[in-house]
């Protein structure tokens, strides 16, 4: 069981920022990453639809024999985590909302915390609940920044357009709340826009994302369940690039090209398998 891969799922390539943190925390593990590129974005869809899509994606990964599922998509984590955990029990299912909330509570001194995310994540209020569960007196303001997803997908992650959009979404929010000192990047696509977001909110606001804290939760879960893989010799395990197999529901070549920005390294198009859910 311990030698099985970890499944990671997102609506597209954004979750590769989470995969990156997972690989660095767990170099001996193998991963299967599924990006539901055919149906992105999830952030504008209803909770029912996202839950259905998330279950279908998870089923493909479960069919490939994963030992643990990471829901790297914030929107899917916020609406479908409980459903996935119930449907696929006893498989451990880990989302990104609680780790992101824990990172925010650790980073904020004032307790005034901003969350930027997709429309679906903001509508569901999962970040507010997770933050208040850790820090009941926290004041949380959530802002839907859906255009950031398109900018990141287009590769316009810095420069005047990204900066203007970030200003438009964020300048007032921060200007009206002088004590706000922490902003959660509550969407897989936002870490690549970090520079433009930081320029819009100014130096007093710390930016946190859930990638590293999610990786810590996964490490703890593997240790607790005695599921850590033994030492792996790279290239001898049948997985693609450094222990990762990539699956996409549409346009594998685009997945490889855009995904490289999120993963921080090149992805060979032939390493991306087209799958149908
Ligand atoms: N993966 C989604 C999230 O983290 C962002 C992209 C989308 O809207 O599907 O919320």
Automatic annotation (TrEMBL):
It comes from Nannocystis exedens. The active site is at residues 73, 187. This is Glutamate racemase. PROSITE patterns: ASP_GLU_RACEMASE_1 (PS00923), ASP_GLU_RACEMASE_2 (PS00924). The gene is murI. Provides the (R)-glutamate required for cell wall biosynthesis. The lineage of its organism: Bacteria, Pseudomonadati, Myxococcota, Polyangia, Nannocystales. Keywords: Cell shape, Cell wall biogenesis/degradation, Isomerase, Peptidoglycan synthesis. GO terms for biological process: cell wall organization; peptidoglycan biosynthetic process; regulation of cell shape. Substrate binds at residues 10-11, 42-43, 74-75, 188-189. SUPFAM superfamilies: Aspartate/glutamate racemase. HAMAP family: Glu_racemase.
